[in-house]
Amino acid sequence: MPLSLDDPSPLAHAAPEGIWPIDPDPRVTDLPGRQRWTFGGGRARAAEVAGTLVPATDARIAYLGIRRDGQGRPFPAAFAHSPETGAALGPPVPLPAPEILDIDLDSLAEVPLPSGVPALIRAGHPAALYLFQENLGAFAEWDGRNFVGHERLPPHPVGTGITASRRGIAYATAEVLVGVRLPQLGRGLAHTETRAAGLRFLSAPCWRGGDLLVLGERGGRLVLCRLAAESDALDLRDLGRAAPDADFAGPWMNRLGDAVWTGPDGFVACRTLGDETTATPWPGGFTPVIAQAPWRDRADLYHQLGMAEGRYHVAALAPDPDLHRLDGPHLAAGPCTYSGAERFDVPWQATEEVLNLGTHAGNLLVPRLSMARDTILLALDIPGPRGGFLRGERLPAPVTGHVLHHAHGAGLRRLPVGLAVSRIGDARALLHDGVLYLWSRSECRCHALRLRAA
C-alpha cells in the first residue's frame, strides 16, 4: 500500500532497517517506478528505482521526492520525522525560494565546470540542477559534487536558449525542436526531436499546457509552430508577416501565462484567452535593443528598450505600442542594464525604490537575478564607448566585474565574486535549493554561495 504524506504517523515512530518499498507520490515527483529504499541504523543508505541505484550521498536522490533532517540527510518524502531522532523533517526538496536573500559570504565555493558554453538550468519535478553546454549539446546532472554527463543533444540553441519548466526542458536549433522530460535516471537520456521540411526555427519555445509553441520561418513567412503533447507532428500557423533574418528573444511570460517574443522588426504575442497570436511591428523609427530583456511594469505589461531619434526609449509590448523616452544617462528596462551619475531613477518608479549607486556610479550595473526585495547585479567598468556592449556586441577583450547584492532598504553590498564577461549576457545567476549560483558563459567558471536558514 502506498505511503501517504497525509498520514505519516506509522513512520514517525519506526526505525526502518533493510529495504523499504515506497510508491512515488505525484505531488512531489514525476519520476515513475516503485522506490526501494535501503536503511541502516535508522538512516537512508541508498535507493533503487527501475534498476538504478542512487546513494544517499548523491544529490540525485532528490529526484525520488525527499525531505531532509537538520544534518541534510535524505529521507522519503512520506516520512514526517527522523526515525533516528524523532525530530521533524524539513519540507519536500528543493527548498522554496526565500522572501529575502540572506547570503552567507563565508560559504563561497567554486563549482567545477567542463569546458564549453555553460547554461545552468533548474527544471523538472522536483526541480533539480542541470548543466547544458550550448556549443556541444552536452547535458549533465548535478550529483552534489560534479556534473555527471549524459549522451549529447543537438547543439546551438537559437533565440534565448533553453526553456525550463516543471515538465523538463525544451529548446530549438535552426532545424529541430528538442524536448526532454525530467527527472530521469539510468543510462542514456530519453528525448524527442521534431522537425519539418523547409522549416527553420527562430526562437526558444514556451509551454502551453502540455503543448510546445515556437516561432519559425517557412517559405519566407513567419509561422507559429505548435507541437501537441504526445504528438510528433507540428501544426503551423501563418502569422501574416515576412520572417526576419534574425532570431527572436524570449519568450517572456506574464502572470496569466501569455507569451511574447521580441524580434528586430516587431514582437509576437500569444495569449491564453482565445488562443490568440498576433505579430505587431515596432513603432516607426524605433530600433529595439534585443540583447536587453524587456521590463515588466506593475500592470504586468512588458516594455522593450530601444533607440528612437538617437535617444533611449522603451516600447510597450501591447497591441498599440507607445514609446516612452528615458531621461539622460539612465538606462532601465527591469532586468536590463542601467547606469547613472548618481542614482537609478525612472519616472514610473516609486521614490522609495530608487537605487543609490554610490561608489558604483561609474559602472554599468547589469541585474542578473531580480526578486521582490533583492537584486543581484554585476558592476562593470567598460573601457571606451559602451553602446555596442549594451546592444550585445562582443568586447575586444573580457572585462571582469564584481557582483553586488542590492537588498531593499539596506543598500548595496559587494559579494566576494568576480565574473569575466565578453558580452552583456555572459554573466548569469540562478537560485536553487538554498544556494545562489553565479557563473560566466565566456569564462566558464561558476561560484556558489549558500543562503542562511530562515
Task: Explain how this protein is built.
With 454 residues, the protein is an all-beta fold. Among the domains are: 9-76, no CATH class; 153-277, no CATH class. It is built from two helices and 38 strands. It starts with 8 loop residues before the first helix and ends with a strand. Mean pLDDT is 86; it is low at 1-13 and 328-359.
Beta content comes to 35-45%
Distance between the termini: 36 Å
Can you count the helices?
2
Report low-confidence residues grouped into runs of 5 or more. Answer: 1-13, 328-359
Quaternary assembly: single chain
Q: Percent range for helical residues? A: under 10%
Shape: globular
CA radius of gyration is 23 Å
Question: Helix- and strand-based class?
Answer: mainly beta
The total count of strands amounts to 38
Mean pLDDT: 86
Largest sheet: 5 strands, antiparallel
Quick structural gist:
The protein has about 450 residues and is an all-beta fold. The protein is about 0% helix and about 45% strand. Among the domains are: about 10-75, no CATH class; about 155-275, no CATH class.
Describe the SSE topology:
Blueprint lengths: L8 H4 L5 E5 L12 E6 L2 E7 L2 E4 L10 E3 L5 E3 L32 E3 L6 E6 L4 E6 L4 E5 L4 E6 L10 E2 L3 E5 L4 E5 L10 E3 L4 E3 L4 E3 L2 E8 L2 E7 L6 E9 L6 E5 L5 E4 L3 E5 L6 E5 L5 E2 L6 E2 L5 E7 L2 E6 L6 E3 L17 E2 L10 E2 L7 E7 L3 E7 L6 H4 L8 E9 L3 E11 L5 E6 L2 E6 L4 E6 L4
Antiparallel strand pairs: 1-2, 2-3, 3-4, 5-6, 7-38, 8-9, 9-10, 10-11, 12-13, 13-14, 14-15, 16-18, 17-18, 18-19, 19-20, 21-22, 22-23, 23-24, 25-27, 26-27, 27-28, 28-29, 30-31, 32-33, 33-34, 34-35, 36-37, 37-38
